[in-house]
Structures are given as structure tokens and as C-alpha cells.
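not sure who needs this but someone in the group chat was asking about NAD(P)-binding protein from Mycena albidolilacea so here u go. i didnt clean anything up, its just raw.
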Amino acid sequence: MPPNAAAALQNASLVGQNKTAVVVGGTRGIGGAVARLLAKLGCSRIIILGRGEKQGKDAVEILKNRAPKGGKVEAEFVQGDLSDNKGMRSAAIALQAAAGDAVIDYLILCQNGSPAGLNIKYNAEGHDTAFAIQGISRFSIAYLLTTRGGLASNAMVMSICNQGQSLDDLSVDDLSLKNRLEARPSGPALFMQQSKRDCTVIDSCFEELNTRYPQYRYYSLFPGLVKTEEFDPSFAPGYLKWVMWLGIRLIATTPDQYANFPVYILASPEAQRTLGSGKYFDRRLNPTPLGKWASDSKNRQALWEKMAEIIGEK
Ligand SMILES: NC(=O)c1ccc[n+]([C@@H]2O[C@H](COP(=O)([O-])OP(=O)(O)OC[C@H]3O[C@@H](n4cnc5c(N)ncnc54)[C@H](OP(=O)(O)O)[C@@H]3O)[C@@H](O)[C@H]2O)c1
């Protein structure tokens, strides 16, 4: 049975534990809510990253004011754009400089690069920009902070995005799905493939990170539908915008409601006991398996090599 995360967090506190959290995409949406809940529990340092300066600075003030009685929250905004390699690398360096070496206890990745359907824009390296933000930057930031000594011992890294879907015929040589465009897919069909691609890549990278760096824990969580401040279903093509429009009205949670689930894993003393060694979860913290493509270790290794090449680490 999934845990009652919100109830369990009533008894949790991070006051006096000297924890440092980095929330990428933490200026609003799900990441903003995760940062606020960590502040409310007394996480002593919270660093958030996004592009918008005003939004970032406003969010920092809110975090400082959320500190519980007897606790103090130091909050900082780091401006960064994860659309291309240069931006990802600069962001990783700036985050480590802001946090200090080997002190990040929680690295939470919430940056949003929703699938673009047919409206693909390509970044400086020729990759689908939405995929660069959603998939490549999750690998890049996690990898760079892991291998450059950014993480504290026993650190937890968490992606909040899609989980468990599989693009079964994914080719590591066509991660931006350019070949599929030649078959003139419909907007909704391509959108679904991009969504599965993002998920397949994130799942595979996180499974490899767990295998290669067992001293840390790399989690991947699917949030379900969350009605964030700027959620606008019209980003989805064709009939999918109506499916989302309805879903948002019928089943969506708010960012603050949803934040209980990731923060339960990070901060509740009972999480390890109730969740065991599982790393991949659905919107209510039911464990979820890897998708078919990501379950194949040969696929994952080929992808790892490709991703290292893409981010200039090979
Ligand atoms: N909300 C949902 O229902 C839902 C459902 C399934 C999956 N997800 C996934 O969950 C994650 C969080 O979604 P959300 O709804 O919380 O998104 P959101 O409300 O749009 O917030 C996204 C955050 O990412 C930052 N961001 C966007 N582009 C960026 C860039 N190029 N570089 C750096 N930061 C960037 C934003 O700040 P700036 O704009 O200032 O840069 C903001 O802080 C996303 O990966 C999303 O696809 C969400």
C-alpha cells in the first residue's frame, strides 16, 4: 500500500540537520512546491535554478519566509538556461559554486521541456530543444554533479517527470526523432512518441546512474497531472489538448499537494522502511517497473555512451 505521505510529513523535520537542496526548475510549478515544502520542514539551504530572474528572486523570498520556528532557511537563486550543452554545463558549475563542494544532499530535477509535437525547434547542437531540457539536461546535471564532486555522501537525486513508458524502437542515433518526421506523423502521434522517448531516456540514464554510482540514490517519479501556475493544455497537439483539459479539471492535484510525495522520500524517516530499495514510483508512490527498452542493459549502455558524447564527456 502506498504511504500517506502528507500525514507522515506532519512528524518530519529537517531543522538542525544542515541539509542542502538544489531544485532545478524550482522557481515555480512542481519544483517550486518541492522547494517550499523543504523550506517549511527546515531544510537549511535551498538553491533553485530557472531562467526568469524576477520569478527566481520572488521565489527565494517566499522560501526564506517559510522557515519553521527555530529554523533558518538560506535560499538562493541561480539563473540558468538548460536548452543547450553550454547552458547545462554553466548551470552545473554555477550550482556547485553556489552550494560548495560535496554538500548537495538533495538534487531535484523538475525543469520542464514538454514535448513539442510537430513544432520542434533545434538547439545549438541540433537536438530537439524540448528533449534537451527534459532528457539531456536531467542526465547532464546529474552526471556532472555526481562526477565532479558536487554531491554529499548518501545524496539523493530525483527526477520528477514521466516514468515507466517505453519507446520500444528508440534508436540512440536518432534521439531527436528526426527520421520519424520524414514519415509525416500526425502531431498527436509524434507528441506521444516524444513523451515516450523522454521517459525511456530518463529511465535508462537513472538506472545506469544507480548501477554506476551505488553510493548515491537516483529516483524517478511520475507526478500524474498537476495543475501548475502556468499549465496550459494548448501546448498539446490535436485531441490531446482536450484530454489534458479534462484531466486537469477531473483528476489533477495542485503542486503543493503533489510535493508531499517527493519530499516524503527525501525527508521522512519512515520512507526507507515503507518504500524499501525501490527508486521508481508513480504519482502515489506505488513502485513502477522500468519500461521495455530501458530494461535491456545493452540498450542502456549504448545510450549512456551516446549521452556522454552528446554532453561532451567522451
Ligand atoms: N504538471 C504536470 O501535470 C506534469 C505531468 C507530467 C510530467 N510533468 C513534468 O514534470 C516536470 C515539472 O513540470 P511542471 O509542470 O512543474 O513545469 P513548470 O510549471 O512549467 O515549471 C518548470 C520549471 O522549469 C524551469 N525551466 C523551464 N525551462 C527551462 C530552461 N530552459 N532552463 C532552465 N529552467 C527551465 C521553469 O523556470 P523558467 O521558465 O523561469 O526557466 C520552472 O521553474 C516537467 O519535466 C514536466 O514535463 C508535469
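also The pocket of NAP is lined by residues 25, 27-31, 50-52, 55, 80-83, 110-112, 114, 133-134, 160-162, 223, 225-226, 228, 230-231 (CB under 6 Å). if thats useful
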